[in-house]
Amino acid sequence: MSVEFGRLVDGNIALRDGKDQGGPVLVYSPAEWDAFVEGVKAGEFDLSALAAHIAKTPSGGPLAPGEAPPVHG
User: Fold this and answer.
1) Which of 19, 33, 35, 54 is most buried (most C-beta within 10 Å)?
2) Calpha distance 4→13 (Å, rounded)
3) Pick from 34, 69, 42: nearest CA to 55
4) What residues are paired with 17 via a beta bridge?
5) How far apart are CA 23 and CA 1, in angstroms?
6) Which of left, alpha, beta for 43 (phi over 0: left; psi -120 to 50: alpha)?
7) pTM for the structure as a whole
């Protein structure tokens, strides 16, 4: 998967799968995008913690609605 993003003329940010350019586009406000970028910089999206949590889940399935992966630090 490749991810493409760009600023729209209205200031919002569009995000899509670069390998599926005809597919859905997610649109975020500048505030939402800034919060995401700051979260990435702060390490809030630790995929290894998510993978470890899924491995421990009896079903091996996704997180339950509202359930957050454990934070390791």
Assistant:
1) 33
2) 10
3) 69
4) 3
5) 13
6) left
7) 0.58
Q: Are 41 and 60 in contact (CB under 8 A)?
A: no
pLDDT digits (tens, 9 = 90+) for 34-64: 998 998 888 887 777 767 766 776 655 566 6
User: What is residue 3's three-state secondary structure?
Assistant: strand
Tell me the torsion sign for CA atoms 60, 63, 67, 72: positive
In the chain, the largest separation of any two C-alpha atoms, in whole Å, equals 46
- What are the counts of helices (DSSP H) followed by strands (DSSP E) for the chain? 2, 3
Residue reference for tokens 């609605």: 65
Which residue's structure tokens are 């597919």?
Answer: 23
What tokens does 30 get?
């500048």
